[in-house]
Write a structure and sequence with these properties.
23S_rRNA_MeTrnsfrase_RlmA, S-adenosylmethionine-dependent methyltransferase activity, Class I SAM-dependent methyltransferase, about 250 residues, methyltransferase, SAM-dependent_MTases_sf, alpha/beta
């Protein structure tokens, strides 16, 4: 039985309720840090939304990113498929005039055909066929994705394989999929860079917030490898893994 007081305090400090996709508890405090990407999704999107009459944010989470892009176009929708986030998103976005829509299937969005001049997507799954259906003529689709090998070092250290549902996902496959559905890919880039956790509590918080990284994760199930990582952090100062990100812009 592990009796390390520091370790136990870190892993028991999970009373904060996670809402939206707000990681500020571990990022604002510097407990988790990621290397800067060689692009900025916001800087890519802002010039495009200034020329759009209608816009959609796919998988808005709690609306954190979308609300940061103000002023927004006249007509803006946001979809969210995780029920606990829907009310959070409505509270943040409806005062800005955004229509928040709950959905269940990527392949069947409750949205009109050929309606949106701009669709943005940050780390959200999507159906290329469905994106094309709801995108207007000459519309633009911008997506930043987490690749299939994102933070694979966590899985290695916990002794579990990568999530097979996403392991194949990368820039080449995503770009080809868009092209197969009639999109012209006008910009693409992929990046592999460090992500660091400076205490074991930050890693546990991350794994609870991102359940697809290690499906069925619980502290109890992985207590021994978590303690090994804790000891590594004590020695090295941090636990480092490699993030996998890519960005695509597609036009019809």
């Amino acid at each position: 039985m592990i009796k390390d007081a520091e370790f136990l305090n870190f892993i028991q400090d999970l009373d904060h309720h996670f809402t939206g996709w707000d990681f500020s508890r571990i990022t604002a405090s510097g407990r988790m840090q990621s290397h800067a990407l060689p692009w900025s999704l916001g800087s890519v999107v802002v010039p495009l939304l200034r020329n759009a009459a209608t816009m959609l944010d796919m998988g808005t989470g709690g609306g954190e990113f979308l609300s940061s892009l103000q002023p927004l176009p006249k007509t803006v929708y946001a979809t969210e498929g995780y029920k606990p986030n829907v009310q959070v998103a409505k509270q943040r976005l409806e005062p800005l005039g955004v229509n928040v829509v709950y959905f269940e299937e990527d392949t069947s969005l409750p949205l009109m055909d050929h309606y949106f001049d701009l669709i943005i997507n940050q780390h959200e799954s999507y159906s290329a066929a469905e994106v094309k259906r709801i995108l207007s003529d000459r519309g633009v689709f911008v997506t930043q994705q987490s690749g299939g090998t994102d933070c694979y070092g966590i899985n290695e250290s916990l002794g579990v394989p990568l999530n097979e549902e996403f392991a194949h996902w990368n820039l080449a496959i995503a770009a080809q999929e868009l092209q197969d559905h009639g999109f012209k890919v006008t910009f693409s880039r992929e990046d592999f860079s460090p992500q660091r956790f400076y205490d074991i509590g930050a890693l546990v918080y991350y794994l609870i917030a991102i359940p697809w990284q290690v499906p069925d994760f619980t502290v109890e199930r992985f207590i021994e490898p978590l303690y090994h990582i804790h000891q590594m952090i004590r020695t090295e100062g941090y636990f480092e893994v490699q993030q996998h990100r890519f960005i695509l812009i597609g036009e019809v």
